[in-house]
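# step 3/5: fold
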Amino acid sequence: HDLSSLFQAIDLGDILSFQLHHEDLLSCTDPSLPNDEHNLVLKAAQLFRRKTGSQLFIKVHLEKHIPVQ
């Protein structure tokens, strides 16, 4: 089947701010998102530590601009 596609560039993106911290913490401008170990940002931090052996923890603020789902 022939398929036609149209792409449009948009200026849309979430903003992540990081700080070193004594434990992993996440805050977000969207209160509907989980801010515990179920969030992908914190899962990525845990995976990073496991793979690198790092003992650094982070405090992250997620400013949502991309709609959820």
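# step 4/5: annotate
Residues 31 and 64 are 10 Å apart (CA to CA).
# step 5/5: archive (pending)
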